[in-house]
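Recall from the previous lesson that a structure prediction takes nothing but the amino acid sequence as input. Here we apply that procedure to Protein-lysine N-methyltransferase Dper_GL26704 from Drosophila persimilis. The sequence below is the only information supplied.
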Amino acid sequence: MDAELEGSELGTKDYWESSYTREIGNYKSHGDVGEIWFDEDSQQRVVVWLLKQEQIDKQTARVLDLGCGNGMFLVALANEGYAQLTGVDYSPKAIELARSIAQDHDLNISYSVADLTLPQTDLGKYNVVHDKGTYDAVSLCPDNSKEKRSLYLATVENLLHDSDSLFIITSCNWTEDELVLSFADKFIKYHTIPTPTFKFGGKVGSVVTSAVFKKR
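The prediction returns the following tokens.
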């Protein structure tokens, strides 16, 4: 796919460090966990879909949240009984916030700092890899976004345990068709998680895309 998104501060580490520094202050002062990227409904749709997958054992399935931010997706899964949960983010401040929230909720969730666009990233193997907005942020990087997306997808491919492992992605910048085309060399679409639609000019579209992929 030749189309590129215009670079934005949302694609920079400095932006997220500054944002999560503020959210840490708000959390310490008011107990506010901060913004849930895309809104809580987008997160809940993925959680509900996962709960319906009988082949995924909550106790043994290893789940990795890429660009975990404040970690609330993993908190939601932990509250549903998932036991093997890991979150990574390239923002140390995001990880600091996520760890604080998990500790205060007495939840055993592992968090670490990792840049998923670096070729040496080695985080192990997982049954479920989740991305809500991280591929979008990589796509908005002002410098070499196309190369960074390629490195990111190579990392994701390496993180999936086998061909039955799931890569779940939610995006507000790319349509499902664009994701399928971009991922074609490494992943095949397994399922579409329905999201709210709108109709404009006789065409139906979605504000947010959620899709599930498996590696080839």
